[in-house]
Amino acid sequence: MSIFEAVKQSVTTRQAAERYGIRVERNGMCRCPFHDDSTPSMKLDRRYYCFGCGATGDVIDFVSRLRGIGSKEAATLLAQDFAIPYEDGTGKMSKPRQQNTDEQNYKHMERYCFRVLLDYYRLLCRWKEDYAPQTPEDGYHPRFGEALQKLPLVEYLLDELLCGDMQARASVVIEYGEEVRKIEQRMAELAAADEAAAQNSGGQYSAADEH
Ligand SMILES: [Zn+2]
């Protein structure tokens, strides 16, 4: 049995949600972690459905979106945390990892968010200087615009991760985990494009600006 089937057969979305810190009411409703939900509008059972934003899927989709990780990673995480044996492709049954995996995974995600956001913050600060309009007639360079637009949010998120309590930090990780992954990917693309541009006799703008 594949890890996906094994996990889906063994764990309900409701069990996973509770395990990963979401408060589920007795009737199976919880506040939706995927939109700004003031009253519980998500129904959790084997699958989940949000009456507010329409988010739906199975337990693997849920954890994948909650943690900002791929389905394979989500399935592996669930298999470990719920001690579900599965075939790992080598024909051997995996040994479920014990001890504090939740906490380790969460800490890992929190550090990851912080690292990426800090890199992005530094990049935006540099853009704000380097691409500032020199004369009033100059239009905004898109990178200057992005710096002005994004800096306040990035500063706020870093502040929450540094100084916020457990709940504040968790909500940054949960709400912005996916976005942080996109930021990391985009910064990697920009760095590669800038490097290529530098090699091609120092063209000033890169293709990645079109994003
Ligand atoms: Zn929702």
Automatic annotation (TrEMBL):
Keyword Zinc: yes
GO biological process, one term: DNA replication, synthesis of primer
GO CC term, one of those recorded: cytoplasm
Gene3D superfamilies documented for this protein: Zinc finger, CHC2-type domain (3.90.580.10)
UniProt xrefs under InterPro entries: DNA_primase_Znf_CHC2 (IPR036977), DnaG_primase (IPR050219), Znf_CHC2 (IPR002694)
Domain Zinc finger CHC2-type: 29-79
Listed SUPFAM superfamilies: Zinc beta-ribbon
Top-rank taxon, per record: Bacteria
Keyword Nucleus: no
PANTHER family: DNA PRIMASE (PTHR30313)
The protein, known as: DNA primase
